[in-house]
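Quick one:
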Amino acid sequence: MRCPFCKEDDSRVVDSRTVEEGLAVRRRRECTSCGRRFTTAEVASLVVVKRSGVSETFSRQKVVSGVRKACQGRPVNEDDLALLAQQVEDAVRATGQAEVPAMEVGLAILSPLRELDEVAYLRFASVYRSFDNLEDFEAEIALLRAEGEPVGQEPVGRPFNVSASRQNHEETNTARTR
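Output:
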């Protein structure tokens, strides 16, 4: 490792410690030429490959900023988003791959986001999965309702009906204007 002070190539490790829950190693080094000490950090790289083929380093902050848009106006705080980003990184690193497609990162976001806030999950999924029409939303809502029920039981209540909801809304608005 090159000394940042005298630019000598030779240094020795004085101390090593794991940081960030074992995901990185912090090393104190001493230059064999000038004797000054400096700190280095080693982190296993994780690269995200976009659809265009461009590669970039995985960023928790980028996960947070993408999810923050879906959580706008929802009762989700910054600590929740930071924890979600950590869960996503852990899930992606658990695949054991040094390079992962962006699609896998998006899929890794869906499950913890659903646990955090179902409305934010629907918003994110609608963009991520390219919902084209109301039927896509209805199908996803029906799935959320069905999966929220105890195993072996039918979903309680009737499925969400967009046209009935619109009709009720129009009737309510008509009644208000009278």
